[in-house]
From TrEMBL:
Entry's transmembrane regions: 51-74
PANTHER family reported for this sequence: PROTEIN THEM6, PTHR12475
Taxonomic lineage of the native organism: Eukaryota, Fungi, Dikarya, Ascomycota, Pezizomycotina
InterPro entries: HotDog_dom_sf (IPR029069), THEM6_lcsJ_thioesterase (IPR051490)
Keyword Nucleotide-binding: no
Keyword list, A-Z: Membrane, Transmembrane, Transmembrane helix
Keyword Isomerase: no
Protein name per Swiss-Prot or TrEMBL: Capsule polysaccharide biosynthesis protein
Protein family membership: Belongs to the lcsJ thioesterase family.
Domain of life: Eukaryota
SUPFAM superfamilies recorded: Thioesterase/thiol ester dehydrase-isomerase (SSF54637)
């Protein structure tokens, strides 16, 4: 499991440090004659090289040193310092959308977005999704000794810092992203089991698809249900796939110290799980008693049956992804030999 950091230091360390740094920069900025600085920058000696440097930095900013860290902590600070609206259970499977653009430094020798750089965008997209959707209850889970949301098998409150770990990522590439081309990442919860929260992310051509509504305040244009943005005709669900550039599936694990927190506890603590007769944990699978769901009205009320139906539908894909964990056993340490050991790896 690859760790993506712990949130136990976020509130006591990073938020105060960011506030102090912003206050200091603001204080210093008030003492600078910015008009004179701008005039010298644009008209003074060496202006062409400075302007070209600024253009390079602006168009490649997300590939610069510490840019990844800034993008991740911007997501944390933005969502943890803004009060999100109360969300209904149906929002549990809604998309979080971010927009960005392919830069020169993110491109390969074909001037297409390098496959390796998709994973940095996935980090950012998942951070926005998880902190917006599940962030409100994270401080309460982190203070578990007081709130007793997570109990061990003996009924004692689990202690330790709250953290989120990234277990694996799969990415399927369908189309290329050209130099300076804009694109969007659409991330949502796919499913969960007794350990992992599965997230699916689609890389989508920018501006080609709009959601039918927004949770809370409006964040951009919308389209009528079952109608495409372009052409005005009724669209089948699979027709939106032509705008998909790549699709990735990731899995997260929640931790309190070394104790694994059931994803249902985190989701329920954020008010996104409706009441279920036998609860959302238990049974052989650890995700509740496997009741017969029967016929589900996909446009009806989002009761526990509808949420469980969506979870099971997502698990049809997630369980195949999870099965790839067994591929670790294929490594035999070069029992039959190796091709060679090469430099500049």
């Amino acid at each position: 499991m690859a760790s993506v950091g712990t949130l136990s230091l976020f509130f006591p360390v990073f938020v105060p440090a960011s506030g102090v740094a912003a206050a200091y920069l603001g204080h210093r900025a008030t003492k600078v004659d910015w008009r004179a600085k701008a005039r010298h920058f644009l008209t003074g000696p060496g202006r062409l090289s400075r302007i070209l440097l600024v253009f390079f930095l602006v168009t490649n900013w997300k590939s610069l040193p510490f840019a990844w860290t800034i993008r991740i902590f911007y997501a944390f600070i933005y969502h943890f310092t803004r009060r999100r609206p109360t969300l209904p259970p149906r929002a549990l499977f809604h998309y979080s959308i971010t927009s960005t653009r392919n830069s020169l430094l993110d491109s390969d020798y074909n001037l297409h977005k390098s496959n390796s750089t998709y994973f940095a965008d996935l980090d950012v997209s998942r951070s926005h999704l998880v902190t917006h959707l599940l962030g409100p209850a994270m401080p309460r889970i982190g203070d578990n000794a007081k709130n007793r949301l997570v109990l061990d098998k003996d009924g004692f409150a689990v202690r330790g810092g709250f953290g989120i770990g990234l277990g694996a990522v799969f990415c399927s590439f369908r189309k290329e992203i050209g130099l300076l081309q804009g694109y969007e990442t659409w991330s949502r919860i796919l499913s969960w089991d007794r350990k992992w929260l599965y997230i699916v992310t689609h890389f989508v051509v920018k501006g080609k698809v709009k959601p039918t509504s927004w949770d809370g305040r409006a964040r951009g244009p919308v389209r009528p249900k079952n109608v495409k943005v372009e052409g005005g005709g009724v669209a089948k669900e699979d027709e939106f796939g032509k705008w998909v550039i790549a699709t990735a599936v990731s899995k997260y694990v929640f931790k309190l110290g070394r104790f694994t927190v059931h994803p249902a506890i985190v989701i329920k603590a954020n008010g996104l799980l409706p009441a279920r007769p036998d609860g959302w944990m238990g049974g052989e699978s650890g995700v509740g008693t496997p009741e017969e769901l029967g016929d589900i009205d996909e446009v009806g009320e989002w009761d526990w049956r509808r949420v469980e139906y969506e979870r099971r539908k997502g698990m049809e894909y997630a369980e195949h992804f999870a099965a790839l964990d067994g591929a670790n056993g294929l490594f035999d340490g070069g029992e039959d030999g190796a091709l060679g050991h090469f430099a500049l790896g």
